[in-house]
Amino acid sequence: MSFTSPLFYVVLVPAAAAFYLLSGRWRAIYLLALSYGFYALSSRIYLVLLILASAGVYAIGLAIAKSVSERTKQAYMALGVALIVGIIIIFKAAGAWRGLLLPLGVSYYSFKLISYLIEVYWDDESVERDPIVFFLFPAFFPQIVSGPIQRPEPFFTQMREVMGRRLDADQLETGCRLILGGLMMKLLVGDRLAAFINLIDTSHTDYSYSIMLTTATCYLLQLYADFAGYTNIALGIGQLFGIEGPPNFRAPFTSVNVQEFWRRWHMSLTSWVTDYLFTPLSMSLRGLGQVGLVLCIMLNMLIIGLWHGLTLDFLVFGLSQGILVSITALIVMSRRRAGAKPASGPRWLAVAGMILTFALMTLSTIFWHSPTLGEATSILKQVLAISPSGSIGWSEVPASLTIPVWICMAVALFVGAGAPGATRLVARIDTVAPEWLQYGVCLFLLSVLSTAGSGRFVYGQF
Amino acid sequence: MDNNEIVGRLTPIFRDVFNDNTLVVTEGLTAATVATWDSLSNINMIVAVEKAFGVKFSIKDVRNLKNVGELLELIKRKAA
Question: Which of A103, A133, A167 is the last residue of a domain?
Fold first, then answer.
């Protein structure tokens, strides 16, 4: 059941209400049953895989904590990580080469389980002995479809807390606002951009250069609107059950270089890779200086690319990001050595950096977006004016698509740049419009402006 | 080695690695309060501290550090 389907919300409201009618441990048991029920709607066989993977990691976690010798702990941790990585690789390979449908959320819950194993290895006290609370961690339904990838400790702490407290009205309101904002971003902005992209995708070589350039820009903006929208919905649903998840975006379009962009984009994944891959790897290779650093960055970005799928497209995407981030890191380090302060320099340089970063990420997203490497190369050549463009101009694109596309691009760009001035605007609206009216307007816009056949999340396929 | 001595030796390292000549190193100092303290400069800082104090840290040691105070304790433990 999709987070954008009206039926989901018809079920969600009583399901959340029932959660608060229960008390203590029953809340966790109920939430686990709810999460498994949600998963079973997608696939009962893969639910067995989720339970088995959780049970394996639960047992290995206890074994790590119980072991005295460092070598035994390390062996258990390596066994657990190999087990989970094996599951990811088998299904990703089967998905890429045999067209097998991936188990729902496998990329997300497996990363949660790996982080748990490493945390317990690093610190025995991170072990979670309560099986219900532990099994809930990978299965928690608001985060199972496409993350965000929450860390074990904040989840366990909040879950234990919510078992012992009363309903928090403020948290419920925050949750509702996040869901509504996320739905608007996804259904009104992301899906409209997707409709335009789908039209051009059918025969992109027939369209004029300016249309193709606009479409390529839409790839990144649509991806942002879709995934940021999804994340807000997931975070909002989590809040209804007392769990605050980690954010995924922090104004990514204000990044002045590609390295910064990756600190602001899909943050729950990039911070995961930094903590559990980059840091240990760079510690091991610290004697190699800049060569070690570049090796670590390349491997990091390659993993981020291939995490999305074991295809040539994502390999090229990962490699291109590795090269861009390595170059940026070397420049930043040499500038720092020369005495440059962060965020120093003229304002125009920062703006130029933002535009260049946006352009580089737009070009990279072509590989992300296209189903095959050949298609991506063809679009890239057209966008870079290496290949000739077609003759279909703006006048031949239906006006019902073009005007909304320009508006949606502006909205996605504005929100992705941190929505400057929005707080002041909201404060003003609060003084003239009561909350029920604000919610009403949002719901009205959602019901009137949603595109037909919308609702599929881009990140749901990973 | 007492804490003051270690802080005294850490200060030029931190100022150099984090590129801030006015940085005041205290036991409560954390990565969040230094603008240039990111995952890249963190590794540079670890390498420089290891070299200065003749110690070797493991990922487990470094991972659990929450502030400079804990780094001081780690240096004392490793140098003992």
Answer: A167
CA B18/CA A121 separation, integer angstroms: 30
My answer on whether A335 and A370 are in the same domain is: yes
Q: Give A263's contacts in chain B (Cβ within 8 Å).
A: 38
Q: A142 and A204 in one domain?
A: no
Contacts of B59 in chain A (CB under 8 A): 279-280, 283-284
Q: Which of B35, B57, B60 sits opposite A122 (nearest CB)?
A: B60
The count of other CB atoms within 10 Å of the CB of residue A411 is 19
Count how many domains chain A has: 2
pLDDT of residue A253: 97
- Are residues A239 and A355 part of one domain? yes
| Of the residues A106, A137, A167, the one at which a domain ends | A167
Q: Mutation target for A interface from B18, B38, B49: give the one with most A CBs within 10 A.
A: B38
Q: Do B62 and A283 touch (CB under 8 A)?
A: yes
pLDDT bucket at A180, cuts 50 / 70 / 90: very high
Cβ distance of A283 and B39 shorter than 8 Å:
no
Q: Is the domain of A142 the same as that of A196?
A: no
**CB–CB of B43 and A279 under 8 A?**
yes
Give which of A151, A283, A325 to mutate to test B binding, by max B Cβ within 10 Å: A283
**Which residues span the domain enclosing A31?**
12-167
Q: Are residues A227 and A101 in the same domain?
A: no
Whether A336 and chain B come into contact, CB under 8 Å, resolves to: yes
What does each C-alpha distance from A235 to A115, A303, A377, B60 come to in angstroms? Answer: 20, 25, 36, 31
A58: number of Cβ within 10 Å:
22
For the domain covering B3-79, report its CATH number: 1.10.1200.10
Confidence label for A137 from pLDDT (cuts 50, 70 and 90): very high
Contact present, B53 and B75 (Cβ < 8 Å)? yes
Residue A175: partners with Cβ closer than 8 Å, 6 or more residues away? A235, A236, A237, A238, A239, A240
**Chain A contact for B36 (CB, 8 A cutoff):** yes
Q: Which residues of A touch B47 (CB under 8 A)?
A: 286
Do A94 and A196 share a structural domain? Answer: no
Do A113 and A131 share a structural domain?
A: yes
- CB neighbours (10 Å) of residue A262? 26
Q: Are residues A122 and A196 in the same domain?
A: no
A456 pLDDT more than 70: no
This model of the complex carries an ipTM of: 0.81
